[in-house]
Design brief:
By secondary structure, the protein is α+β, with helices and mostly antiparallel strands. It is built from eight helices and eight strands.
Length: 251
Amino acid sequence: MLFGLNLIMILLIFGVFILVASIKIVKEYERAVVFRLGRLLKSAKGPGIIIIIPVIDRWVRVNLRLIAMEVPPQDIITKDNVSVKVNAVVYFRVIEPNRAITEVDDYMYATSQLSQTTLRSILGQVELDDLLSARDRINAELQKVLDTHTEPWGIKVANVDVKNVDLPQEMQRALAKQAEAERERRSKVIGAEGEFQAAQKMVDAAALMEAHPMSLQLRYLQTLREISAEKNSTTLFPIPIDLIDMFLKRK
């Protein structure tokens, strides 16, 4: 009788231990990928409390939150043969936990390596000016390529941002000289356009005065007034415009 009670007590304790070991808690942003006797269950479990059969089941916890992974600086030679060092950030999340566990050994490592190779491949096909100015287009192309390759793994690449582009000192000086030359060219063009517009206005004014001779007389008087308003010792001898006009007609 005593032996029977001891056996029942042992079985009860063992049963409680098995029950406690079977209960697992999965957070809201996680899923549990379960293998039962080595075979994958059709759907991931969670969130909340799940039951895992000890010894028979093996489970893997998968994080479904958005992951920001930094791509280490990569040495890249652009299409116009400029050596630069570029790093980026890849934002992705797991959307199918079962495939993320079964289709690739380590999806974090695989995504990191794929990001590095894709970054070198895509940026090696663009010129330096595009890399510095068309950043949005390059980011979209990187995101599209990465998302295409990671889709079979159950991973969605949400965005890719190229962070820093480190240029050699010689290239930085060359770009500074180019920018300085461009600014100088613009200043000369603006100056030439100003002179052209001023000359055009003078031609228009001359044509207007030729059509209205009285305007020349008014302009003459205005000039005398401006000169006399200044504090100087200049002596003026006004000459009638009609006298000058008479010589001009003779000529």
